[in-house]
Amino acid sequence: MSTRILIVEDEEPLTMLLRYNLESEGYEVYAAARGDEADTLIREARPDLVVLDWMLPGLSGIELCRRLRTRPETRQLPIIMLTARGEESERIRGLSTGADDYIVKPFSVPELLARVRALLRRSNPERVSNLLSAGDIELDREKKRVSRNGKPVDLGPTEFRLLEFLMERPGRVFSREQLLDGVWGSEIYIDERTVDVHVGRLRKALNHGHAADPIRTVRGAGYALDDRFGKVEKSA
Ligand code: CA
């Protein structure tokens, strides 16, 4: 499953340059030339990181960034802001809108690639780790083993991939279509109901003898690994 990056930039040559270089690094790249287009694309493509230009037609980069930070599902979305302005006050304004990093045009492509890698590492260490954990569930990618509360959980290969996909992005809601793309791949045609069947099997295997269900069904939207799952609620 490759990491998805969305470029939001109205200068087409720059978009092409960034797309080429990011794709060479193995990222799946999406692009939008307008702020409002980007907003829609973020809901649909669910990128892992956004490279966002400051000045855009439709909706400015700053305004888009603000909007993304007010929505729970995009509050944590890593954003690198691009801007031609270098003044200190502008920098502060850029960061206070919620961007995680900031790069001034003109910049070198290797510099941007390094920032992208650093931000992805910082924002989601799970993506590069062999051992994923969520609450009392542990998943070992290398050994293909899953345990809950220290006891082994027997999963089929599809359920394993499904759990791995969800554990990489705790809290994020995925539609059945996105799960099909991410777990089965977009090349093959599988009925969306197949997702429900496998989620059902995964739940059954994980929840055997346990009280809390870590998988959240979001009506009309899809499924997520509950990011509150396993956290100790502190009572006042
Ligand atoms: Ca621009």
Fold and architecture overview:
- The chain is an alpha/beta fold and 236 residues long.
- The chain has 2 domains: 123 residues, Rossmann fold (3-Layer(aba) Sandwich); 105 residues, Arc Repressor Mutant, subunit A, CATH 1.10.10.10.
- The chain is built from 8 helices and 11 strands.
- The strands form 3 sheets. The protein has a 5-stranded parallel beta sheet with strand order 2-1-3-4-5, sandwiched between helices. It has a 4-stranded antiparallel beta sheet with strand order 6-7-8-9, with helices on one face. A two-stranded antiparallel ribbon has the order 10-11.
- Strand 4, helix 4 and strand 5 form a beta-alpha-beta unit.
- The longest helix is centred in the middle third of the chain and has 15 residues.
- The model has no long low-confidence stretch (mean pLDDT 86).
- The site of calcium ion has 5 residues, from loops.
Which structural traits does this protein have?
single chain; 236 residues; 2 domains; 5-stranded parallel β-sheet; elongated
Global mean pLDDT = 86
Termini gap: 41 Å
Give the spatial strand order of the biggest sheet. 2-1-3-4-5
Give the ordered list of helices and strands: EHEHEHEHEHEEEEHHHEE
Helix content: 25-40%
Spell out which ligands are present.
calcium ion
Number of strands: 11
Overall tally of structural domains: 2
Roughly how many Å is the radius of gyration?
19 Å
Beta fraction: 15-25%
Number of contiguous helices: 8
Q: Give the CATH topology of the largest domain.
A: Rossmann fold
Task: Briefly note the structural class of the backbone.
Answer: alpha/beta
Query: Mind telling me the CATH superfamily name of the largest domain?
Result: Response regulator
CATH class of the largest domain: Alpha Beta
The CATH architecture of the largest domain can be given as 3-Layer(aba) Sandwich
Q: Spans with pLDDT under 50 lasting ≥5 residues?
A: none
Sheet having the most strands: 5 strands, parallel
| Shape field | elongated
